[in-house]
Amino acid sequence: QVQLVESGGGLVQPGGSLRLSCEASGSIFSINAMGWYRQAPGKQRELVATITSGGSTNYADSVKGRFTISRDDAKNTVYLQMNSLKSEDTAVYYCNIYYSNYARQGFGSWGQGTQVTVSS
After folding, report:
1. CA 106 → CA 77, 100, 115, 120, distances in Å?
2. pLDDT digits (tens, 9 = 90+) for 96-119
């Protein structure tokens, strides 16, 4: 059993910044890919950013240059630093990990989501 606990969402004005965190705990041997996704009202969930165990990153075109994903493997935590926020960034943000348990089996897991609202 693996749990993902997200934090850092909230209300921010356009142009502001927020930092999301997602800590994983449970039967984790290693975490391979980690990522952030978001879902706005009436829209499908979309990829925001991912980071591999080797530190390679990938971003949606809409957030390139504004968002930065990072990870702390000692804490099993992934972060999303969001700068220059726009109203269109308003969504529920979900973290996702792909990990191996102690039996070396691979699984994916989602967080419960954290609301980010960008509004004046």
Report:
1. 18, 4, 28, 43
2. 999 999 998 999 999 999 999 999
Provide the pairing of β-strand 91-100 with 2-7.
Answer: unpaired
DSSP track, 31-81: EEEEEEEEE-TTS--EEEEEE-TT--EEE-TTTTTTEEEEEETTTTEEEEE
Q: Which residues contact 98 (CB under 8 A, 6 or more apart)?
A: 31, 32, 33, 34, 106, 107, 108
Segment 62-98, tens digit of pLDDT: 999 999 999 999 999 999 999 999 999 999 999 999 9
